[in-house]
Amino acid sequence: MNIDLEAEKKEILKRYRKLLAEAKRSRDDLDKQQIRKAFDVALEAHKKMRRKSGEPYIYHPIAVAQIVAEEIGLGTTSIVAGLLHDTVEDTEITLEDIENMFGPKVCIIIDGLTKISGVIDYSDPNYSIQAENFRKMMLSLSDDVRVIIVKLADRLHNMRTMEFMPRHKQLKISYETLYIYAPLAHRLGLNAIKTELENLAFKYTESELYEEITTKLKAGQKKLTRYINKFSLPIINSLSDKNFDFEISGRPKSPYSIASKMKNKHVPFDEVYDVFAIRIVLNSDFENEKADCWNTYSTITDMYTPRPDRLRDWISTPKTNGYESLHTTVMGPDGKWVEVQIRTKRMHEIAEKGLAAHWKYKAKSDPDASSKVDDWISKIKRLLDNPGNAAIDFIDDIKLNLFSDEIYVFTPAGELKTLPKGATALDFAYDVHSTIGNTCIGAKVNHKLVPLNYTLKSGEQLEILTSSKQKPKDDWLQLVTTAKAKHGIKNGIRRNKKRIATSGKIKYKEIISDLGSVHSNNLTKELVNFFKVSDVSELYIKIDKKTIEKSHIKNYLDQRPIYKETKQNNKIISKDISHESFKKGDILVLGEDADKIDYKISPCCNPIPGDEVFGFITVGDDVKIHKTNCPNAMHLQANFAYRTIKAVWEDKSANKFLTGVRFTGTDDFGLVSKIVNMISKESKLNIKSFQFDTNHNVFEGKVMLYVKDNVELLDLQDKLKEIEGLDGIKRIHTN
After folding, report:
1. Are 267 and 166 in the same domain?
2. Is 104 buried (19+), middle (13-18) or exposed (0-12) by CB count in 10 A?
3. Domain check: are 40 and 66 in the same one?
4. CA–CA gap between residue 532 and residue 539 (Å, rounded)
5. Which CATH number characterizes residue 57's domain?
6. DSSP per position, 78-120
7. pLDDT tens digits for 676-700?
8. Which of the residues 44, 89, 271, 682 is marked catalytic?
9. Element (H, E) at 613
10. Does residue 243 share a domain with residue 199?
11. Most exposed of 18, 87, 116, 442 (fewest Cβ within 10 Å)?
């Protein structure tokens, strides 16, 4: 490919100048110097890099900075971060370099962007790692929301230029965009970016349906324009007569929005009644905004009959992302339903540019302009602050609580509460206060008694009924949807269990004393093992609740082996083991000591010679041999260290040990015969059992066999790998 370097230099300079032209807001000389320095650093860092399209890589960071400046309206710090967002991840530039050159604010944003660079792939076996990346992204939002805004700009440009990527990556990135980034843009109030992200992702995930909808929209454009003009003219005349300063426009709804309506209502394109919307933007002073919007609504509904169930008042109660607008659906000419949106210029700018507009207006007459978004970010912080929240659960909480539709309900005093759609009366109780939630016994909705799992509807008024005797229960977790309620229930249960465990511990010590025994940690651990409870706390809880009674503990003590724990030349001596000593000091030599010590191979891990092992003295007066990486090893070593024995294999042991191999592959004629021949004839090993199954040409097999040691087993595994069509060969550690 021939590259015209001079032409590229001119194009880069042209794009940079366009960026400067868009970055207009109160730029002083220092701002311009910072942007120029960032451009120079990015240009030098990426000079040898090219995109999949073959274009210079620097086009991408310039485009991201352009989106940040022009389409979102952020300042110098964000523009600089947009230019530098890939430098630490893809070049030799370090975070320290960034901080030295551009200061800590830019450094924090670049650090956040570097941490969240991974793609969340839900089919990936490392999904939990990817989920953790998402947690990091949300954590960065709570530290500095500009991290996410620059990330959204980055994602938007990547989606705009994704045609050169392979198909599987297009799908992967598109699904991620629909699942995470478009809802995130929506919640941050970036409606224009949210809509474009949805459409671009839709273009790749359902290309045929996307093409169908866009083709039909294009074909009907002239007819649609004529209808919009016919509908709008009476409104224009009436509002003009009333001296309103306004702009009116009609637009088709986005292809993604139309497709969603088609799927939800199970109708074809031609039966989607509201494929376009009329938007009226008023130029009003802040103090007159509400009155002007409602007057406009009155004007329209005097001409066209409204659908009462389709009125949406987001002026009196703005959405969590700060969105304010009046939406109504009216019957237009020719019996067609038309959606009309009514808002002011301030509201419109917030709807399109979200947080950037919030900050712009916050310092003006509306001091609470961004309070809703601030509240939303606070919710994220509360989720992040919960140490027991697994990364995958965190994604579910985010989707459920932060990206969902909202309902609006009222306290008895008339205070408005915003909750996710699907929230219950118990969710409301915890939203008021965790103490109210923990003691909740019921609720009254509009003065009528309802159960805790009652699903709330917008406009309802709730009164929570409480009792000091009530405690949160495990099954409550199935009655709530909000993360706040789930965390409150879990914390309440945890505190309650701690209180019960404390009471149980006192009763336990009294029981041990009454039975004439001495309380010790070893005894407690033995009882945990004997009663098969998860830990000491559960033991105490069962004692307090009398699930484990005094008689049960007495029965154990009466038949309990009494171990003498002493040190004698580093040897373990037990009353229940009659052997005077172990050969080679305190080490049990497996094979050599077989005639002296009754030991058995543990079936939970099936160790074979060559495996690193230890012995465990059981209550039944024998020794079981476990692998050091046995699933039970941690429990045994941690709780019963005094009953463990060092053990090694005798080098010259002639014994054979049972083990197994599991494998998968592509089913083929003669495959079983090849496997059997490899084991029996070539490797000369005895087979105990052989199981196999096929499913849609996929072969799965399991063979149990006798080997001398793990070297012999590993040699067999290597030979099996040579059989064509066979893969996924793994050792079986249990029978």
Report:
1. no
2. exposed
3. yes
4. 9
5. 1.10.3210.10
6. HHHHHHHTTHHHHSS--HHHHHHHH-HHHHHHHHHHHHT-S--
7. 888 877 777 888 788 878 776 677 8
8. 89
9. strand 613-617
10. no
11. 18
Reply yes or no on whether 90 is catalytic.
Answer: yes
Based on the residue annotation, tell me whether 89 is a catalytic residue of this protein. Answer: yes
Which structure tokens are listed for 171? 């799908």
The residue segments making up the domain with residue 109 are 5-212
- What is the edge-to-edge ordering of all strands in the sheet holding 599-601? 587-590, 644-649, 613-617, 623-627, 599-601
- Count of structural domains within the chain: 4
> Cα-flanking dihedrals φ and ψ of residue 338, to 5°?
-130, 130
Catalytic option among 90, 374, 393, 598: 90
> Tokens 């960032």 sit at which residue?
38
Other beta carbons within 10 Å of 577 = 19
Mean pLDDT of all residues in 245-271: 86
158-162, 377-381, 587-591, 652-656, range with greatest mean pLDDT: 158-162
The per-residue pLDDT for range 226-235, each reduced to its tens digit, is 999 999 999 9
Q: Pick the closest to residue 438 from 502, 475, 493 (CA basis).
A: 493
Neighbouring residues of 323: CB distance < 8 A, sequence distance ≥ 6:
189, 191, 314, 347, 350, 351
The predicted model gives 652-663 an average pLDDT of 72
> Within this chain, do residues 130 and 233 fall inside the same structural domain, yes or no?
no
Measure the CA–CA gap between 208 and 583, rounded to whole angstroms.
77
- Look at residues 536, 559, 582 and tell me which one is the last residue of a structural domain: 559
Q: How far apart are CA 556 and CA 528, in angstroms?
A: 12
- We report the CATH number of the domain holding residue 343 as 3.30.460.10
| HSE of 694, CA atoms in CB hemisphere, 13 A | 9
Domain boundary among 161, 188, 212: 212
Same domain, 62 and 208: yes
Q: What distance, in Å, lies between the first and last C-alpha atoms of the chain?
A: 61
Query: Within this chain, do residues 203 and 154 fall inside the same structural domain, yes or no?
Result: yes
Q: How far is the C-alpha of 526 from the C-alpha of 512, rounded, in Å?
A: 13
- Residue 263 is assigned to a structural domain of this protein: yes
3-class secondary-structure state, position 643: helix
Helix (H/G/I), strand (E/B), else coil: 623: strand
Flag whether 283 is in a domain. yes
Residue type, position 177, single letter: T
- Residue 616 is classified by DSSP as E
Q: Do 163 and 234 lie in a common domain?
A: no
Q: Residue 397: inside a domain, yes or no?
A: no
Whether residues 498 and 522 share a domain: the answer is: yes
CATH number of the domain enclosing 719: 3.30.70.260
687 near 705, Cβ under 8 Å? yes
- Give the DSSP letter of residue 403: S
